Amino acid sequence: MKYKTDNMNYMKINNCWSILMVFFGLISIGCSDEYLNKEPLSDVTAENFFLKASDLELYTNGFYRMFPESSIYSGDAKADNIITTTLSDEMRGTRLIPTTGGGWNWEYLRDINFFLENYQKCDDENAKKHYGGIARFFRAYFYFDKIKRFGDVPWYDYTIDPSDVESLQKPRDNRQFVMDRILEDLDYAIENLNEEVQAYRITKYSALALKSRISLYEGTFEKYRGITGYEKYLQSCIDASEELMNNAPYGVYTTGNHSSDYMDLFNSLETETSEVILSRQFTQSLAIDHNVNYYTTTSSYGRPGMPKDMVNSYLMKDGSRFTDKANFNQLSFIEEVSDRDPRLSQTIRTPGYRRKGESLNIAPNLGATMTGYQLTKFVTEPMYDTYDESVNDLPILRFGEVVLNFAEAKAELGTITQSDLDNSIQMLRNRVGMPPLILAEANSIPDPYLENQYPNVNGTNKGLILEIRRERRIELYMENHRWDDIVRWKSGQTITQPLRGLYFPGTGSYDLDNDGQIDVVLFEGDTPGNQTAGIQYIKLGADIFLDENNLVDPQPDFNNRTFDEKRDYLYPIPRVELQLNPSLTQNPGWE
């Protein structure tokens, strides 16, 4: 990732990272131990650098490369939110122990610790506070990624001398020890970072949002595994979320036009800073781009689709449950998407959908989606449909997630009130004109459909927790949260449930956008002659498969997936790393 400047308030692109590579040789090395003890390659030494605020800024700009690019939605694609032509190894249960790589890389940590050992040479006290806070933010971000992936990991807050065998062969530290160090870093960042709204730069608000995310993750991860002490992490989430909600200039962007606010948040080229706290910036002029349009509109790049169980999860517009309807799985497409939570029609193609900048309504393209539910979130004008041409900014931290974190942490801790819901989740529902979530009603009759998805939820707030999970899945769809949520909830069996798509009674002609014109013809045998332009001709048993209930089966070869509860929540440590460091132990189930 590279960055551009605008009065020092935007991420640097191209030039600054190139300079950093020359200055410090911050080049990715495959073997983690080799990199941890590697001296900086530089004609500029630590003694004559780190002396000015511009030095600190220049160095810390390189840390922004840690943020995801279009892989922002990878956490949804490797779980059950986005179904593509090839299921992820996580979904199929086919992960293997890698020889090298596998996420066990430490180059960024070496760079961060080197900075923290040298930045105090600068005489600018304000710069030291701010850029020291940035480095501590990124060390927390780095270690959180390692904790999620591997569990216990060795904690290093210093650079390692090549002769320091004890450090190089250090065993893994307990995850709670590492997590506490992560939160200490974030507390330092919160205390010292600049307090301002900058969507492309780390600020105090970024650190608060990250602390909210990390604390919720650890609190629920430990709670659902019966680990004592989880309460402090849930309270940490609540505290960070409340500080951001009560003292920061963020809110859910609402113009009163409930039909477009949610969609506009993601398909606008520039970040909406009233809600997005931190985002990845893209720009056409410097060819810094991503693939979202191409990914969602073409028939040759994965054909991503929303699964039917998620479509079923969206409430009716009046707040009632769609899954309480009789025969809800056998309704036509037009019937099932009518009068639903407006976020559904702002996330997939439904009747009346128009591409941004276009005037014609268009139906779902079954050739571009495995399930029939074609994604529209993040999709911009057709001029960006070519491979690697999308340039709309992608959110990394946003206010909507923070209010969801707050509500979930309070519900899991058992301290939530109706007022808490009104001041958090209701903001999200107000944006799209949805009625409030009522605590007593949610707990009185938990949704059986959600109970089936998350069978390990229990307790007084069971119904409410299920509703918060519904809200989270809908609001944060395609924003890289789903896999992490499945892991922290200890809900791996959720992703083994059947994957399904649109309902079709069988062969015939179908109008999918309710304009009175045929959009799709399903046929068996020979391809129909005299085909009409603009109509999709789909062969059953070849182009599309239906199950025994006439639902699209996007992956008929993978209907018996399994999830190993003792192994699959973590990833294996590569074999070479175990050889290089005999003090390391392999994760359970991967021995």
TrEMBL record:
Q: Does the keyword Lipid metabolism apply?
A: no
Q: Which residues form the SusD-like N-terminal domain?
A: 104-216
One Pfam family matching this protein: SusD_RagB
Task: Specify where it is mainly localized.
Answer: membrane
Task: Tell me yes or no: is Membrane among this UniProt entry's keywords.
Answer: yes
One GO cellular component term:
cell outer membrane
InterPro entries, per the entry: SusD-like_N, SusD_RagB_dom, TPR-like_helical_dom_sf
SUPFAM superfamilies the record matches: TPR-like (SSF48452)
> Where do the RagB/SusD domain residues begin and end?
289-590
Q: Identify the keywords attached in UniProt to this record, alphabetized.
A: Cell outer membrane, Membrane, Signal
Query: Where can this protein be found?
Result: Cell outer membrane
Q: Which PROSITE patterns match?
A: PROKAR_LIPOPROTEIN (PS51257)
Q: Which protein family is it in?
A: Belongs to the SusD family.
Task: Give the protein name, as stated in the record.
Answer: Starch-binding associating with outer membrane
Q: Which organism is it from?
A: Zhouia amylolytica
The organism's lineage is:
Bacteria, Pseudomonadati, Bacteroidota, Flavobacteriia, Flavobacteriales
